[in-house]
């Protein structure tokens, strides 16, 4: 079913761009950081990335002229940052103005090994290719949109840059690069010359100008006879801004009806304890201190660098709950009311959420079940059993956006939300979300069998064909509980007439996480039988927009007798080699008494394709 989103072509002004810069500051700094060369060293590279973003806005009068006809503030900022970062990365002259830091060196806070691997891989690319890679992997743009962005800033050969970035993805397919390992807004501090300093009783004031276009003052105290390095918790407390209940951002109730950006920024605050400053203060303190925090799939737990947005504050199932959003992450604070001290904070990534992935949040979970808080643009909510595709969806009651309690999904009964957006947002737009742990449910999509035309794109998994495919593959998602999965897509990459009768669908289920990693599993869906495993891969680009070539095989016992090795490839496969025999086309049915398959395929591009590991 096609989605017809109502357009909003209003131009943006300086105020909207300034707000967008603050809101997207961490992701924009990361974009600049990934484009700049690693040869600068991490300290200068971090400062340069912040400097590029802080210079993205010219003076107000010039900004007004540049915004003539501009309808997307983030796109405008992204182009400015791309242009400056590529220019600096390509220049042989010294870097321009950098934010100043005295007495400290700055390093990315996350894993040093992952940072080094990413830096080494990106150093092999041109600045334009690094920009293309960062736009797709970090900014989550499509390949076509990334090429358009590069073309818009005057890159002479944007297609070549995209191809160069794609080649890096192909080379690292067995060990995909982790873009989340570079976060130049979450830094580790180290002294420049600790041993050479004179020991004295005077306090040394150190000014750090490196976070969110603001000045953070850090006092490094030296006592007579010794200097104590900051612990991680001390550094977090000193770097974190003072968060107060009064400073929480609150979105107007009807903003979602008058914006082209439908994500968590459009959520108004809800709940029956919105004015409970004591509860809100305790939630903010828990995030600032970092105690009792559960991070979903390695989400950074550092305190927000600006006052977060309040999404909910109220009582759910007799438990006080506060839900916050800092532009990149969701944080759900739950306050224990008994002697078991069940107070805690769960933090999960939510960057680049959209009308579907920001449509619901897990607001309450217990042994009895789960409740979701739905977005303000959700008109109706129903509950579907994914493993029973012929059973109609049932109405799911809601109160102040919170659903009735539903059971956790199991292979016997896979509870799935089917939500429908308001007509003011999109006409006839229904979609599926399912729970796999964490705070954000997983968006389920579907790609129908290939045609002779261009490759198709994922669509909502609400059609009969989509529901039938997910009925047989949903149980495979159970192994991904708590892994930070953002979306899962069933791609029917081939159809085959089966020996003994019937038609089988070859499906690749692609599950993507919020940090960009993913899993792919191939199965053969045959009439009247459970799904047959046909291969799988972890930490891979297979079956994603970066790798749309797939080859798989399965052992098939025909209902009329006889055993076969079946193999299938995606639309670019023109020849398959199986156990010493070569077959034209992308489908093979070879009589066999063994499941062992020595399998390769030839692509129309001339490349050789190996199967998903079965």
Characterise this structure.
Helices cover 22% and strands 30% of the residues. A hairpin with a 6-residue loop joins β26 and β27. The radius of gyration is 26 Å and the shape is globular.
Roughly how many Å apart are the termini? 34 Å
Give the CA-based shape: globular
What about the largest sheet?
Answer: 10 strands, mixed
- Beta-strand portion reads 25-35%
Model regions low in confidence, pLDDT < 50 over at least 5 residues: 1-8, 110-114, 193-240
How many whole angstroms does the radius of gyration measure? 26 Å
The count of β-strands is 34
Provide the residue-averaged pLDDT: 83
Share of residues in helices: 10-25%
Number of DSSP helical runs: 12
Q: Which structural class fits the helix and strand makeup?
A: alpha+beta
State the assembly state of the protein chains: single chain
Tag the structure with descriptive keywords.
alpha+beta, 12 helices, single chain, 614 residues
Topology:
Layout lengths: L3 E2 L8 H10 L1 H11 L6 H13 L5 H7 L6 H18 L13 E5 L3 H11 L4 H11 L5 H10 L5 H14 L15 E5 L12 E8 L2 E7 L1 E2 L2 E2 L4 H8 L37 H13 L3 E3 L13 E8 L2 E7 L3 E6 L9 E6 L10 E7 L2 E6 L3 E8 L8 E2 L2 E2 L2 E2 L11 E7 L4 E2 L2 E5 L7 E6 L11 E2 L3 H10 L11 E13 L5 E11 L4 E8 L6 E7 L12 E7 L5 E7 L3 E6 L2 E4 L2 E5 L7 E5 L4 E2 L5
Parallel strand pairs: 8-12, 22-24
Antiparallel strand pairs: 1-20, 2-3, 4-5, 6-7, 9-10, 10-11, 11-12, 13-14, 15-16, 15-19, 17-18, 19-21, 21-22, 22-23, 24-25, 25-26, 26-27, 28-29, 29-32, 30-31, 30-33, 33-34
Helix pairs in contact: 1-5, 2-3, 2-5, 2-7, 7-8, 7-9, 8-9
